[in-house]
């Protein structure tokens, strides 16, 4: 089970060396709840990532505003950790809140912006864009 995003941020602040943060990122990826095999579809695949990445967005419409829940997976350990951080950041938010949330600011706070390769950074932006688009779609459908 993934820790809450506040705990992830605190743990990153505690780790001074990039190697330690790198290991923690991979550990977060291992804590991701499994994405069912049937969810590894083209519709769930995130384009713009060098690694294979799948994000499944579930919309809970039981409250006054839709809430988003995510499952994800990747075939690369570091990328799977990035997926885990994004899921911890976005999961459970209302659609309008998720559409406005500053995930790039989070990556700067965690030091990921300067340590991820350009390809992984582009992939992270593609994941953020996909989540934001799903959030905007859920908000518009409400």
TrEMBL record:
InterPro entries: Fe-S_metab-assoc_dom
Pfam families noted in UniProt: SufE (PF02657)
Domain Fe-S metabolism associated per the UniProt entry, residue ranges: 10-133
TM ranges: none
Family: Belongs to the SufE family.
Name of the protein in its database record: Cysteine desufuration protein SufE
């Amino acid at each position: 089970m993934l820790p809450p995003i506040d705990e992830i941020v605190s743990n990153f602040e505690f780790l001074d060396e990039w190697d330690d943060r790198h290991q923690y990122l991979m550990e977060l990826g291992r804590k991701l709840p499994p994405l069912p095999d049937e969810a590894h579809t083209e519709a769930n695949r995130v384009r713009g990532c060098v690694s294979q990445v799948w994000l499944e967005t579930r919309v809970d419409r039981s409250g006054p505003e839709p809430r988003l829940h995510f499952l994800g997976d990747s075939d690369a350990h570091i990328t799977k950790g990035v997926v885990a951080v994004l899921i911890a950041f976005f999961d459970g938010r209302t659609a309008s809140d998720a559409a406005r949330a500053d995930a790039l600011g989070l990556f700067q706070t965690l030091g990921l912006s300067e340590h991820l390769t350009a390809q992984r950074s582009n992939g992270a932006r593609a994941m953020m864009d996909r989540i934001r688009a799903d959030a905007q779609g859920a908000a518009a459908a409400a």
